[in-house]
């Protein structure tokens, strides 16, 4: 971490409330973790006791929150520079960096141990690996060193459905692996669309986002390429036992809409984006959220209807 993280505003906390400690856990990111993990657990072919299912999802959520707290501890110096992150609890001085670090480490250990005791140790080990990958591989190693930070680091955010599946079954299968691949391939166009219209923030913080290192045109090319690569992955998941006609229909429509939105981003240049305040880029970013939510939502519907349809 750079010397900026040791400056007085970050080391002397203000008056922190419960809301500040909750914000440390990145609740928006945690909600995605909880939802995809829950779908992975419910879609699994083996029945799970409701209490075990609840504890498993809780542990995955806490592990995701722990990762967020450790991320905020390490990134406090660059968070203080970027407009969209400078009001976070650590850079604003409401929570000391040491507190964020201690909370993240404590919650990491708690979530992994409890998941192992409540479900199985394979799931616990996978959760531990997910936390390690997000904090050490992505946050500490990749984020400030390579424009491929989002691509490689996206694996951490993609693993929760597999953790949920393993918590239910104690084993791996192709269906949850494809769920992981779906989130993994979705992550770059999702974040690069955001990076196009918050570009100044990453430049000020010297984070080597693709928009900063290779420019708008390369970023737009990558967004479209990943959107196209998402199509066979999402449709391939539709051919597994966890999916069905509802998922396939939703996936076809969502892929058409998302590829079209990314094509609109690709065909523009910076001048056109500046003229309408990045309308197409913002639309692609918003649609990316709907894209992922509805894919997993369709899987959840299929899993819920399965017993009634004899599946």
CATH class of the largest domain: Mainly Alpha
Q: Number of folding domains?
A: 2
Shape: flat
Q: What is the fold named in CATH at topology level of the largest domain?
A: Tetracycline Repressor, domain 2
CATH-level-4 superfamily name of the largest domain: UbiA prenyltransferase
Task: Give the name of the CATH architecture of the largest domain.
Answer: Orthogonal Bundle
The overall strand count is: 0
Question: Mind describing the biggest β-sheet?
Answer: none
Strand content: under 5%
Distance between the termini: 52 Å
Helical residues, percent: over 70%
Transmembrane segments: 29-46, 52-74, 95-115, 121-141, 162-185, 223-240, 246-266, 287-309
GO molecular function: protoheme IX farnesyltransferase activity
Keywords: Cell membrane, Heme biosynthesis, Membrane, Transferase, Transmembrane, Transmembrane helix
EC number: 2.5.1.141
């Amino acid at each position: 971490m750079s010397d900026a993280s040791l400056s007085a505003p970050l080391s002397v906390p203000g008056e922190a409330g419960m809301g500040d400690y909750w914000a440390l856990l990145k609740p928006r990111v945690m909600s995605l973790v909880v939802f995809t993990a829950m779908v992975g657990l419910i879609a699994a072919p083996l029945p799970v006791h409701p209490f075990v299912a609840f504890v498993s999802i809780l542990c995955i959520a806490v592990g995701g929150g722990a990762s967020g707290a450790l991320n905020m501890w390490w990134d406090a110096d660059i968070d203080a520079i970027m407009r969209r992150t400078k009001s976070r609890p650590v850079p604003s001085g409401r929570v000391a960096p040491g507190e964020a670090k201690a909370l993240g480490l404590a919650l990491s250990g708690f979530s992994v141990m409890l998941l192992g005791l409540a479900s199985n140790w394979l799931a616990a080990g996978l959760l531990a690996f997910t936390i390690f990958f997000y904090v050490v591989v992505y946050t500490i190693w990749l984020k400030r060193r390579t424009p491929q930070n989002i691509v490689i680091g996206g694996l951490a955010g993609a693993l929760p459905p597999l953790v949920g599946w393993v918590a239910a079954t104690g084993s791996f299968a192709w269906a949850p692996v494809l769920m992981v691949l779906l989130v993994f391939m979705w992550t770059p166009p999702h974040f690069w669309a955001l990076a196009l219209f918050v570009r100044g923030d990453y430049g000020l913080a010297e984070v080597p986002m693709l928009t900063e290192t290779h420019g708008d045109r390369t970023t737009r090319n990558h967004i479209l390429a990943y959107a196209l690569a998402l199509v066979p992955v999402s449709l391939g998941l539709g051919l597994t036992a966890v999916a069905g006609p509802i998922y396939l229909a939703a996936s076809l429509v969502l892929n058409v809409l998302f590829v079209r939105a990314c094509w609109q981003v690709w065909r523009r240049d910076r001048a056109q984006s500046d003229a309408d305040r990045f309308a197409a880029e913002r639309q692609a970013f918003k649609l990316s959220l709907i894209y992922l939510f509805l894919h997993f939502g369709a899987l959840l519907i299929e899993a819920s209807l399965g017993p009634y349809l004899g599946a």
